[in-house]
Amino acid sequence: MGKGIELGFDYIDLELKTEDARRNEIINKAIESGVTTIVSHHDYIETPSSKDILFLMKQCLEADGDIAKVVTTAHEFMDGVDVILAGKEAKSQNLRFTVMGMGRFGYLTRFLGPVAGCEMVYASLERGEEAVYGQVDIQTLNSIRIKKINFESAVCGIIGFPLGHSLSPLMHNAGFKELNLNFVYIPMEFPEEQLGTALEGIRSLGFKGLSVTHPYKRAVMNYLDGIDERASDIGAVNTILNNEGEFIGYNTDSSGAVGALRDSGIDIWSGKDKTLIIGAGGAARAIGVPLAKAGWEIIVANRTPAKGKNLADMLNSHSSTTAISISEIGDAVSDINLLINCTPLGMKGYPSESPIPVNLLRKDITVFDMVYSPMRTPLLMAAEKVGAKVIYGHEMFVRQGVEAFELWTQGKAPVDVMRKVVMDELGEGSI
C-alpha cells in the first residue's frame, strides 16, 4: 500500500478491519501525498439491510477514509435493491461512497451505481475476466452509457428470463442518446419465483418504465395497479409505465405486430383470411386478438394443449378459432394464408430449430416469425428457400419498442436511429 502511494496512485483501498495503527499510518502518508483513501468493508456472506449498509459506510468514513466502500453478497434481487437504496440515502446525506454487490444479483448494483450516487463502479476490462461473480465488464457498462448516468437519471429496464438475447437495452439507450435524454435502460434477469418481490423493489427504486418479455407477460399482470384496455383485451402486458407511483400495464406488441404485417402488404382489416398461430403465450395473444377482431379464421397450435385451448376459447368470442396439437400442424398448414411463430424456438438461448417441420412450408403463404434475434431464424430461412414471403421479427420488435419509448418519455422516438442500431447488431446484410 505504501508502495502505491510512492508510485503516485490516485487511490488506495484499505480494509476497515485493518489494524488501526497500520491504517492510520497509511492514511497519513496518503494525505501527505494527496492520494485519495478508500476504506472498505466486504461481506462475503449476505447483504445486510439498507440501514445497516449505511451504518457500515459511516464506519468507513469515521475510520478516516475519503470514500467509503461497502461490498455485499447479493443472493436475491432485493439484495441488489437494498444496496442501491442505501446508496441513495447516503447520497442524500452528502456522503462520499461506493456500494456494490457480488453474487448472482450483483449486476444490478453495477448498472445503477451512478444512480445511487456512487463515485465509482468497479468493472472487468473484458467479458469473462470478471474478478468476482456479479461484476460487469466495461463494454457492457459503456453500452448503457455508464459515464452519462447520474443521481437524476430516469431508469427504465427489461424483465424476463433469460435475457441474454435481448437487444432492448441497445435500442432504447441509442434512442436516449440521440435525444440527449437523461434516461438509462438496463436488463434485469431473475427467476419467476422472485417476480413479485422484484417488481416491488423496482417500484421502490422509482423506475420510470419497464419492458416485459418471456415468460412474464401474463404473470406480471397480477402485480400492477392498472391495465390499459388493449392489454386487458389481450390478456398480456409487455410494457409498464410508472404513472406517479402507479404501475400501469400496456401491450405494444399488438400494434407492433399489426404494423409489421401492414408494411409487408397485409392489412388485417381489408381481408379475412386464415392463419396458423404457433404458441399460446403473450405474443400469440398480442397478434391473435386483433386478427380475431378483424374476422380472420384462426388455428392455434401449442405444445401444451390446455394453453392452446384457453387461447382459442378466448379468440372464439370474436371469430372462428380452433385449437390443435402440434402433431396436427401438417393438415393445418395446407389450408392457411399466414403462418405466425409466437414461440421462442429459434431464438438465441433456445433450441435453434423451426417450430414446424420445414417440409410443410409452401411458397404461397406468408411466414411471420416474432423471434428477432437472430434475424434469419431456421423457420424464415426454410420459408425463403421455398419462395414464401417472410416477415422478420425485428420489424415488430422495433415498433413495439418505439411505442414504449414514447410512453416513458412523452416525446417522439427517433425511429430511424432505433431501427438502425438493431439492424446493425443483427447484421442487415444477412437478409
Please, could you describe this protein's structure?
This protein is α/β, with parallel strands linked by helices and 431 residues long. The chain has three domains: 1-152, Alpha-Beta Barrel (TIM Barrel), CATH 3.20.20; 153-251 and 400-431, Leucine Dehydrogenase, chain A, domain 1 (Rossmann fold); 254-391, Rossmann fold, CATH 3.40.50.720. It has 16 helices and 18 strands. It has helices at residues 2-6, 20-33, 50-62, 77-92, 106-116, 138-143, 168-178, 195-204, 229-234, 253-263, 282-293, 305-315, 329-333, 378-385, 393-409, 415-426, and strands spanning 11-15, 36-42, 67-73, 97-102, 123-124, 136-137, 154-160, 183-189, 209-212, 226-227, 239-243, 246-250, 274-278, 297-301, 321-324, 338-341, 366-369, 389-391. The strands form four sheets. It has a six-stranded mixed β-sheet, with helices on both faces. A six-stranded parallel β-sheet has the order 15-14-13-16-17-18, with helices on both faces. Helix 4 packs parallel to helix 8 (195-204), helix 7 runs antiparallel to helix 16 (415-426) and helix 10 packs across helix 15 (393-409). The mean pLDDT is 94.
